Amino acid sequence: MLKRSISLSLASLFLLLVGCASKPPAYNGISFPATTKAKVVFQEKDVPPQCTVFAHLIVHTPTGLTGKRVGDGITDFAEKKGADLVFIGLSRKTNDEAHDFEFFTYGPKDAYTFGKEWFGWKFGYSDWKKGGSVIGLGYDSWHDTSGIYDFGLKIQAVLLRCQKG
């Protein structure tokens, strides 16, 4: 009877852990009041130095999306978290089976001024290095409604707050 009870408890615990592992990560970073119309930039020189960085992200996308859908998914998330500017870094192919957008947070612990403290794409390396080849994802593909990515993407992104309030 005791063995059966222990086996049942272990099986329940296993199912609980498997269920938790399959859910996308919850955003646990800094947030501000929601915004609308977050601007997206792809080059460091286009980020105003006075902007405040409040989230370092690596975004995993599902397969079968257009560039516009990728862009909409990231900017929708950014606006809900209070970003009015999104800085996009490199993108890579991935074979991960994301069924929805997944936003992995890598800090910062405290928001900081971009022009004074930005040291580049140094976060989330353990996740980043597990991706495939680097691919181009820029302004043109961000708005493309015809091309379909037949693979998932890992995208470096930084959320910034540039306006007061």
Largest beta-sheet details: 7 strands, mixed
**Relative helix content:** 25-40%
Number of domains: 1
The chain-level mean pLDDT equals 84
Instruction: Please tally the helical runs, counting DSSP H or I stretches of 4 or more residues.
Output: 5
Quantity of strands, as a count: 9
Q: What class do helices, strands and sheet pairing give?
A: alpha+beta
Features:
seven-stranded mixed β-sheet, 165 residues, 5 helices, alpha+beta, disordered N terminus
Characterize the structure shown:
The chain has helices spanning 2-21, 67-81, 114-117, 125-128, 139-142; strands at 39-41, 52-60, 65-66, 85-94, 102-105, 112-113, 134-135, 148-149, 152-161. The strands form two sheets. Strands 1, 2, 4, 5, 6, 7 and 9 form a seven-stranded mixed sheet that branches. Strands 3-8 form a two-stranded antiparallel ribbon. Mean pLDDT is 84; it is low at 2-21. The termini are far apart. The longest helix is centred in the first third of the chain and has 20 residues, at 2-21. It has one domain (34-161). It is built from five helices and nine strands. It has 165 residues and is of the alpha+beta class.
